[in-house]
Specification:
Elements lengths: L1 E7 L4 E4 L5 E6 L1 H4 L14 E8 L4 E7 L5 E5 L7 E6 L3 E6 L8 H13 L4 E5 L7 H16 L3 E4 L8 H8 L3 E5 L6 H8 L25 E6 L2 E5 L13 H4 L4 H4 L19 H7 L5 H12 L6
Parallel strand pairs: 3-5, 8-9, 8-11, 9-10, 11-13
Antiparallel strand pairs: 1-2, 1-4, 2-3, 4-5, 6-7, 12-13
Helix pairs in contact: 2-9
Length: 307
């Protein structure tokens, strides 16, 4: 039988068939032993083939994973040298970000966008909790949104408590399989509840001491919102470590740098201090934003991206 993985709990996978039936499946040992360098060989969104082990109990055995058209991946925070698949076969990845309570760093946003570029996933940034910003904070957020939109990323500002742009957020999801990601506490579950209250996803208060959220989602899970519209809700992510991106190719995943890549004096330029570097010159002319260029340098040095 065929189906799509809707939920992963580490060793068991909830697989939905085209008819809408759910089977609780485990992975056949042979598949697990193929030398995957990931902590989870099967991700939510994967299309799989499985054998029914118990029709009464709706249990099965995954025997094949179909080739993925795309996926989002990050470094595992638990196993050195391993990656963690966040989701597969998605139409768009939506990063929920907040400029306060908690603050999402530019380093985190930019690493997320680079991962999307590298694995062929369209990305959108939703700046949530607009209601808690001061007038000055809203002006600053508008500047940040303009900067990201100028390099090709769609942005939306939202507030659940004021129901600001909630209809626009709903329209953003319509007819697509969307991954929702971000730090704990940015309001992913609250946004989902705002457009689909019957899901009643668990939400949490922000700690005023740490200004961080508590994890309310334990495992990645796909939900059907309405016909042909699905979201994948993920656990809050603290870090977005990049996987298998060489220094020479990193700039290819910054849209504003791509147009200059053939103009550098040296073909293997990594745009740090080389003479005749067209990217550096563009940065110095103000054509590449400071935050973006410094995120690029941080990624080259593989620094912590939470700041």
């Amino acid at each position: 039988m065929e189906g799509i993985v809707f939920r992963s709990t580490g060793s068991w996978y909830d697989v939905r068939t085209p008819e809408g039936d759910f089977y609780k499946c485990r992975l056949r040992g042979k598949l697990r032993l193929k030398g995957f360098k990931t902590t989870n060989p099967v991700a939510v969104g994967d299309r799989v083939h499985f054998e029914v082990e118990d029709e009464t109990e709706k249990r099965g055995l995954i025997v094949e994973i179909e080739a993925r058209r795309n996926y989002i991946i990050r470094k595992s925070v638990h196993r050195t040298g391993h990656a963690h698949l966040i989701a597969a076969n998605i139409d768009q990845a939506i990063l929920i970000a907040t400029l306060a309570m908690p603050r999402t760093s530019f380093g985190f946003i930019d690493r997320f966008l680079v991962s999307c570029e590298a694995y062929d996933v369209p990305a959108v940034i939703v700046f949530n909790k607009t209601d808690i910003l001061t007038d000055e904070g809203r002006d600053y957020q508008a500047e940040i949104m303009d900067m990201y939109e100028s390099i090709g990323y769609r942005c939306l500002d939202t507030s659940v408590t004021e129901r600001y742009h909630i209809d626009e957020f709903r329209a953003l999801l319509d007819g697509k399989i969307s991954l929702l990601s971000g730090h704990s506490g940015v309001g992913k579950s609250s946004l989902i509840n705002a457009i689909k209250p019957e899901l009643n996803l668990k939400t949490s208060e922000i700690s005023h001491y740490s200004q961080k959220g508590k994890h309310t989602t334990t495992f990645a899970e796909m939900f059907e919102l309405w016909e042909n519209t699905f979201i994948i809700d993920t656990p809050g992510i603290k870090e977005m470590g990049l996987v298998d991106i060489a220094a020479q190719e990193l700039s290819h995943y910054f849209p504003e740098m791509r147009k200059y890549l053939g103009e550098c004096k040296f073909h293997n330029c990594i745009h740090v201090h080389e003479p005749g570097c067209a990217v550096r010159e563009a940065f110095e002319r103000g054509e590449i934003a400071d935050t973006r260029y410094h995120s690029y340098l941080s990624m080259l040095e593989d620094h912590d991206n939470r700041r």
